[in-house]
Amino acid sequence: MSHAQPITAELRQWIIEQASAGQSPEAVLKSMCASGWNEDVALTALEETLTRHLDEGGPKGLKLPPGVPVPEPDLDDMRPHLHAVDRDVTVLLTMRSPRIVVFGGLIADDECDEMIELARARLARSETVETATGGSEVNSARTSEGMFFDRGEHAVCKRIEARIAALLNWPVENGEGLQVLRYRPGAEYKPHYDYFDPEQSGTPSILRRGGQRVASLVCYLNTPERGGSTVFPDVGLEVAPIKGNAVFFSYDRPHPITRSLHGGTPVLAGEKWVTTKWLREGRFV
Ligand code: PD2
Ligand code: ZN
To answer: Looking at the chain, which terminus has fewer C-beta neighbours within 10 angstroms, N or C?
Structure first.
């Protein structure tokens, strides 16, 4: 992380004034970047300033949770292919902030077909984890149907999980079981964050099973006829759902400042099938 731009007392003062006037940390970060600050430096300045201000008795509500390590593919030398156990995966797109990487050819066609057939039998209307209670409930923002495999439940799951662990340099044990979703025409997944909201009362019990989610990998098991892209509204990015490809994104703290807001646009024709792998901070049990 570069500190070429010094974090001066004036800058700290300005950050505190903005935050005290009701500006969200995201809005302050945006202003800083717009006036030429390097994003990493700006984020560090924001985090340090607001944390210290709070420790000194400033108002609550400004606090940014601390950043934690996240999964990350080996992309330093921008190779077009990454070897993941038994497959060469193509790197189709990378974005630094938010961290997003689109991979080609992560899952073989016959593996996609097998995942769909194994999941089809178990589909029920999708449930999302209900953070108020720590239980589950049907969520109208997600009009798909879905199910979870246990980790390693089938040979094909095991193979895909090993590949994901190698690709993202993150232990298999820190992954939740693969989730499969089916979207029929008209179904969508409205924009949301995949991390658990720290403000919700049910979150502490969810976090006991391996800590926060820190990254997601949405893998496309088929190519819908029309619609069904994955979008990142904060940066205006739209990823085409193509069989075997996958979109990875990470979030180092459970906060909108990560700009990891994302959604699935309505399927307009045909079906859309995905399998999602969520990566936790620690061992998922
Ligand atoms: O299917 C998608 O494109 C999608 C979009 C947003 C999947 C998820 N979120 C998810 O599984 O969390
Ligand atoms: Zn999601």
So the answer is: N
Is the full-model pTM beyond 0.70? Answer: yes
3-state secondary structure 51-80: HHHHHCCCCCCCCCCCCCCCCCCCCCCCCC
pLDDT in tens, 134-191: 655 445 567 889 999 999 999 999 999 999 999 999 999 999 999 999 999 999 999 9
More reliable by pLDDT, 46 or 104:
104
Is the pLDDT at 2 greater than 50? The verdict is no
26-35, 197-206, 265-274: the lowest-pLDDT one: 26-35
264 lines ligand 1 (CB under 6 A): yes
Structure tokens at 270: 């045909």
Domain locations along the chain: 9-62, 81-280
Tell me if 113 sits within 8 A of 121, measured CB to CB: no
249 alpha carbon – ligand 2 mean position (Å)? 10
- Across-strand partners of 103? 91, 246
Token digits of residue 182:
């089916």
> How far is 108 from 177, CA to CA, in rounded Å?
19
Gap between the Cα atoms of 282 and 174, Å rounded:
5
Q: How far apart are the first and last CA of the chain?
A: 34
CA nearest neighbour of 197 among 271, 253, 275: 253
CATH of the domain spanning 81-280: 2.60.120.620
Q: Does the beta carbon of 274 sit less than 6 angstroms from any atom of ligand 1?
A: yes
Cα–Cα distance measured from residue 64 to residue 253, given in angstroms and rounded to the nearest whole number: 8
Q: Mind listing the pLDDT tens digit for each residue in 252-267?
A: 999 999 999 999 999 9
Residue among 189, 260, 267 whose CB has most ligand 1 atoms within 8 A, to mutate: 189
